[in-house]
C-alpha cells in the first residue's frame, strides 16, 4: 500500500489549501481514511477521518473550517482547509485502515504516507 500526499505549502492566515492523498495497492473504496498532523515538538493529532461510506468526523480545532472527502474512482482522499490559522502549521499525513467504519484511534491505522508540510504565516 502506498499513500502519497500533496498540496501542502505556505499560506497566509485566513487562506485556504487543499491537500490530496493518492492511494495505490489497496481496495480504496472499502477502507476508512484519515488525516493527521504533527507540529514540531507536539504529538501527532487527528484532523479528520472518513469511513468507506462517507461518514466523517473532525478534531475539535478544525470543525467548521476543514472538510474531508474522498473520490473512490480516483483512489484519492482530500482535505479542504479554509480559514487557516498559524497553529495549523504542521506536517500533514494521510493514513488508511483495514476497517470500514469511522476510526478515531491513530493506532488502528495500518499505512501512512510520508506527509506534506503546511505552514501558515501570521
Question: Would you kindly provide a brief summary of this structure?
Answer:
This protein is mainly β and 122 residues long.
Describe it:
There is one protein chain. By secondary structure, the protein is mainly β. It has no helices and eleven strands. The chain starts with a strand and ends with a strand. It is globular and about 40 Å long. Strands 2, 4, 5, 6, 9, 10 and 11 form a seven-stranded mixed sheet that branches. The mean pLDDT is 95.
Which features does this protein show?
globular, 0% helix, 122 residues, 4-stranded antiparallel β-sheet
Question: End-to-end span in angstroms?
Answer: 37 Å
* Sheet of most strands: 7 strands, mixed
Tell the overall outline. Answer: globular
Poorly predicted runs: none
Count of helices? 0
Structural classification: mainly beta
What string, H for helix and E for strand, traces the elements in order? EEEEEEEEEEE
Rg is: 13 Å
Count of beta strands: 11
Mean pLDDT equals 95
How much helical structure, as a percent, in the residues? under 10%
Strand content: over 45%
Amino acid at each position: 500500500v502506498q499513500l502519497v500526499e500533496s498540496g501542502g505549502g505556505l499560506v497566509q492566515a485566513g487562506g485556504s489549501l487543499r491537500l490530496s492523498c493518492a492511494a495505490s495497492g489497496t481496495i480504496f473504496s472499502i477502507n476508512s481514511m484519515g488525516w493527521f498532523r504533527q507540529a514540531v515538538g507536539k504529538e501527532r493529532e487527528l484532523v479528520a477521518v472518513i469511513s468507506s461510506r462517507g461518514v466523517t468526523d473532525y478534531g475539535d480545532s478544525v470543525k467548521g473550517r476543514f472538510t474531508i472527502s474522498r473520490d473512490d474512482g480516483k483512489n484519492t482522499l482530500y482535505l479542504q482547509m479554509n480559514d487557516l490559522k498559524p497553529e495549523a502549521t504542521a506536517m500533514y499525513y494521510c493514513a488508511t485502515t483495514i476497517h470500514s467504519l469511522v476510526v478515531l484511534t491513530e493506532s488502528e491505522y495500518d499505512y501512512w504516507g510520508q506527509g506534506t508540510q503546511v505552514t501558515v504565516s501570521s
